Amino acid sequence: MRRLYSIYFILIALAFPQSGLAALGESIKTFQDKNRKRIELKEILIRDEKKYYSFNILVDENELVMAPGFKVGMTVTVTAGKISGQSLAISCGSNPMEGNRLAVDQCYKFACESLGRQASANAAELSLVQQAVFLAYSNMPQVLKFPDTTGKIVFKTEKKGDEIILLVAALKK
User: Fold this and answer.
1) Nearest Cα to Cα of residue 6 among 92, 158, 122, 105
2) Which residues fall within 8 angstroms of residue 80, CB to CB, at 6 or more apart?
3) Averaged in consecutive runs of 10 residues, what is the pLDDT profile of the chain (173 residues)?
4) For the chain, what are the domain ranges?
5) Which of 12, 108, 149, 162 could form a disulfide with 129 if both were Cys (CB 3.0 to 4.6 A apart)?
């Protein structure tokens, strides 16, 4: 079983090379340019000195066939043209098993890219993200910290009608 996780983890790392989401401190323009094919801008809200960009993250159609209704939204907070915060909202859709797998994939990519770190070939990291997602869905918020960064990733859920939404935030400290 452990070998299967290692192979799965390596496949995830290869499937999502450097085509990143957003790194904290990165320019919003750079982020939008490099992710033009992966995101769809929904709206921009301006409050005081900050801008809040809301995006839909486009999910591969083959994955949507396996997890109908799976959706990922992203909010990027921008101060003085630089990304100062970001969060994901994930709906697993009508197939919770496959939706959960896709959520773990999205969360791991998000954690690595937002904290500016490389995805590791260590299956233990993916397992930690998987456990954090599972516990968050069990109504136990989680905080993940990686030893090579000062930031952290927070996982929690929120009920929206009958649906449970996974909320994931990247924080600098």
Assistant:
1) 122
2) 49
3) 36 35 85 90 95 94 92 95 93 93 93 86 87 96 91 95 94 80
4) 1-40+53-71+95-142
5) 108
